[in-house]
Amino acid sequence: MVVAFENPSDDQSIGRSVYLRTALLLIGWAIAAFLLYALATFLPSVVMAVILLVAWVIVRFDSRKTKSLGSVLCGITCSLTGVCALAMHFTHWHEDVMTRLIFVGLCLGAGLILLDRRADGWSP
Questions:
Q1: What is the pLDDT of residues 66-101, one digit of tens each?
Q2: With pLDDT > 90 as the criterion, what percentage of the chain qualifies?
Q3: Handedness of CA 111, 15, 27, 102 (dihedral sign)
Q4: Can you tell me whether residue 122 is helix, strand or coil?
Q5: Would you tell me which of 36, 52, 85, 121 could form a disulfide with 104, CB atoms 3.0–4.6 Å apart?
Q6: Residue 57 belongs to domain spanning
Q7: CB 105 within 8 A of CB 37
Q8: How far apart are CA 50 and CA 100, in angstroms?
């Protein structure tokens, strides 16, 4: 069996690498969202509140906004979480479902920020 390695400076392989990383990040994001939603159905309210508080602090006090894929996905996730929070506040429609969605959104946002900072080497 012969294995051919591509030249890393080749534009096509770099583009493929970006698409692969994007696909892996989106698949991981969706799996994590599903697992967090399933976890939120079994968590006591006090534990969920503590996790929400920690996640909110991480998202709220993130001082570095970059143009990385993780940062963009975090912005989209947190924006949708804000829409869920506003909808729950004004309509009180399925508050248990909306609370779980807010929990998932804040946890995903905090996780994406931490992954983005890890990729940056944790430098301030």
A1: 777 778 888 888 888 889 889 888 887 788 888 888
A2: 20
A3: positive
A4: coil
A5: 36
A6: 11-120
A7: no
A8: 14
Residue 92 lies in a domain: yes
Q: Is residue 101 part of a domain?
A: yes
Task: Kindly state whether residue 83 falls inside one of the protein's structural domains.
Answer: yes
Q: Which residues contact 104 (CB under 8 A, 6 or more apart)?
A: 33, 36, 37, 40
Count structural domains, the chain.
1
Cα–Cα distance for residue pair 120/76, rounded to 1 Å? 20
Of 34, 33, 37, the residue nearest 96 (C-alpha): 37
The DSSP symbol for 43 reads: S
Rounded CA-CA distance 117/7 in Å is 29
Q: What is the dihedral of CA 35, 112, 50, 34, to 10 degrees?
A: -10
Does 93 fall in a domain?
Answer: yes
CA 53 and chain centroid, separation: 16
Task: Record the tokens describing residue 105, joined without a space.
Answer: 């959104």
Tokens of 35: 């697992």
Instruction: Say what the pLDDT of residue 12 is.
Output: 59
